Amino acid sequence: MTIATEELIMNAVSMKRALQRMAHEILDRNNGASNLALVGLQTRGVFIAKRMAAIIGSVENTTVPVGILDVTMYRDDFRIALKQPTVKVTSIPFDVDGTTVVLVDDVFYTGRTVRSALDAIMDFGRPRRVELAVLVDRGHRELPLAADYLGKRITTHPNEEVRVRIAENDGIDEVTLVRLSE
């Protein structure tokens, strides 16, 4: 019998602070919002990207374009892990050529999703630069990738998982660490 315990890592207030800090770091590193676009990875990365775009937009008094990216068909394991993959919406309503694209995701783990996102975004053009913003980095990288903007780093074990809940999708803002034990 598997028993799971869940520990709160971030509440709504700490998530909001992390997103505000990351948005300001993006502005600082890019000298403002000019020629900047955010692309959220399905599903929760989309909501995080929209929130950060709103923060950046309010600070800079501008509208930051936000795209939605589903990387299902770009994953190197979709034929193995997913017998019938569920493909979600991809919408990049702006020209990526020459743009600084910030990929946004909720949890950074092995790096395979980010690698897939890099492949996918290149199908839309040639960005000037691609950066990565993640709410939680839980380690255990299998590829040589690192986040440019990070909400929180959590040391995890293989029998643990990080669950991000976003109000727009899950009814609550929180990050928890779930420990599975036999």
Detailed description of the structure:
There is one protein chain. With 182 residues, this protein is an alpha/beta fold. It has a single domain, classed as 3-Layer(aba) Sandwich (Rossmann fold). The chain has five helices and eight strands. The chain has helices at 12-29, 44-60, 78-81, 112-122, 167-170; strands spanning 3-10, 36-41, 66-69, 100-108, 129-137, 149-153, 160-165, 174-181. A five-stranded parallel β-sheet has the order 3-2-4-5-6, with helices on both faces. A three-stranded antiparallel β-sheet has the order 1-8-7. α4 links the parallel β4 (100-108) and β5. The longest helix has 18 residues, at 12-29. The N and C termini lie close together (6 Å).
Please provide a brief summary of the model.
The protein has 182 residues and is of the alpha/beta class. It has helices at residues 12-29, 44-60, 78-81, 112-122, 167-170; strands spanning 3-10, 36-41, 66-69, 100-108, 129-137, 149-153, 160-165, 174-181.
